[in-house]
Design goal:
Layout (H helix, E strand, L loop, with lengths): L6 H19 L8 E5 L6 H17 L3 E5 L6 H8 L7 E6 H10 L7 H4 E10 L1 E5 L8 H10 L5 E4 L5 H13 L4 E4 L3 H10 L4 E5 H9 L4 E5 L25 E8 L4 H16 L1 H9 L2 E3 L4 H21 L6
Parallel strand pairs: 1-2, 1-3, 6-7, 6-8
Antiparallel strand pairs: 3-10, 4-10, 4-11, 5-8, 5-9
Helix pairs in contact: 2-10, 4-12
Length: 325
């Protein structure tokens, strides 16, 4: 004799199955590790800042925040990878002035559009850069370096961490404003560019304070000036390039972004965690001591800043006739 199914139990079972996906979706973000892609090799300045933040963000989010290095094309490869990643908050980018701003005018064939493909989270830091030379270069000041470059057109070269990076922009701005011919030699990140400079493979660079100050103090490179608008507390005796070339100024920055369709509540939670990390006394002190000034602003403020940077550097790309190399 067949028994009839209990219709009440069947209905309860079906209702439970139907609600199961909703319950999973309702779980608060994050439910798994979050990764931040750094579009440069490990050990470079972007990597240093990101790892300092990731440790604190892990504590506040309750999930591991891991750093993944995807280097290449001056940061463009890693930037493009994140632009094409799922918009769920689990893959983020520590973007830079080169990848997010300069590439918009310098690299017309890039596989992303900063304003279309990313949701800003927060600006992380602004960074100090120094004009440094190999000890063999016979110049002690910016004025002497410009005179040397004019006497040897096309003979001096400078290393950068890639096309469109601030180390590239700083060099092209010096060439344009100083009316000199210096050859650009791009590398795949700040660490290899620094290695080339210290070894004497290149003559000069506009290196990030995060990695160059120890080399300056060790006498492995010679510091001539600061690229930003004001002197650095790390080396107050150094003048700015603008003290020789009025109007000169080139400072770098890094900022956290997500794929554009990332839910607003997820962006808000990531912003809160990132800003909290940047304002943690130990992180802020460590970054400041290395020449990176913590920022930590709102998504809207960061979005406006990125738009202004795109416009600012597009003008240099045009007037200096910069081309991808």
């Amino acid at each position: 004799m067949k028994t009839k199914p209990d219709l009440r139990l069947v209905r309860i079972l079906l209702t439970s199955l139907a609600l199961a996906p909703c319950t999973a979706l309702a779980q608060p973000f994050p439910v798994k590790p979050v990764r931040i892609v750094v579009p440069f090799p490990a050990g470079g300045p972007t990597d240093i800042v990101t790892r300092a933040m990731a440790q604190k963000m892990t504590e506040s989010l309750g999930q591991t925040v891991v750093v993944e290095n995807r280097a290449g094309a001056g940061g463009v490869l890693g930037t493009e990878f994140v632009a094409r990643s799922p918009a769920d908050g689990y893959t983020l980018l520590m973007g830079t002035i080169g990848g997010l701003a300069v590439s918009m005018s310098l690299l017309p064939t890039r596989g992303f559009d900063t304003l279309r493909d990313f949701a800003p989270i927060t600006q992380a830091v602004t960074v100090t850069n120094f004009l440094v030379t190999h000890p063999s270069v016979p110049a002690r000041t910016v004025k002497e370096l410009l005179a040397l470059a004019r006497a040897r057109p096309g003979k001096l070269n400078y290393a950068s961490s890639g096309n469109g990076t601030v180390t590239h922009l700083a060099g092209e701005l010096l060439k344009h404003m100083g009316r000199v011919d210096i050859v650009h030699v791009p590398y795949k990140g700040g660490a290899p560019a620094l290695t080339a400079l210290v070894s004497g493979e290149t003559d000069m660079s506009f290196e990030n304070a995060l990695i160059i100050v120890p080399q300056i103090k060790a006498g492995k490179v010679k510091a001539l000036a600061v690229t930003g608008a004001k002197r650095s507390p790390l080396l107050l005796e150094l003048p700015t390039i603008g003290e020789t070339l009025p109007g000169y100024g080139a400072s770098g920055w890094y900022g956290l972004v997500a794929p554009v369709a990332t839910p607003r509540d997820v962006v808000a939670k990531l912003n809160a965690a990132a800003v909290q990390a940047l304002r943690a006394p130990d992180v802020a002190a460590r970054l400041s001591a290395q020449g990176a000034e913590p920022v930590g602003n709102t998504p809207a403020e960061f979005a406006a800043f990125v738009r202004s940077e795109i416009d600012k550097w597009a003008n240099l790309v045009k007037v200096a006739n910069m081309k991808p190399e």
